[in-house]
Design goal:
Helices cover 76% and strands 0% of the residues. By secondary structure, it is mostly helical. The longest helix has 28 residues. The relative contact order is 0.17.
Amino acid sequence: MTETEKIRALIAYRLEQADEALRAAEMNLAAAMERSAVNRAYYAMFYAVLALLATRQAETSRHSGALSLFDRYFVKPGSLPREFSRWLHEAFSKRQDADYATDFAMTTAEVSELTRRAREFVAGVQEFLREQDYISTSVE
C-alpha cells in the first residue's frame, strides 16, 4: 500500500468514526440522554478534524493539540469557516463539562443546536476533503 493509499484509508476511517458518532449523538438526543449526546457530537467533530490532519500527516495525542492544528492549518488560511473553529472549541468545552462537571446543565434545545452544528461541521469537512480529492463523492 502506498503512502497516499494509507492516508486515504485513514481519512475514510476517521470519517466513518465521525458519522457513527453523529448518529449516536442524534440517538442519545432523541432518548433524552443529553450528556451522551454532547459527548458524541463533540467526538463527531473531533474525528472529522483527525481526518483533516491526516492530509497534513499531522498527529497529536491531545485534543487541545488537534484543535490548535485545525485552526492553524484550516481556519487561519481560510480553507474552512471561522465559525467551525468557534463551534469546535465550544463543543470541546461542553463535552468536558458533560463528562466531568458535577453541575452540567444544558437544555435539550442547546444540545440539539450543538448536534446540528456537529452535523454541519462534519458535512463541511467532507465537502472540503472531496474538493481536495482525498475522498470520492460516494463517501457520505
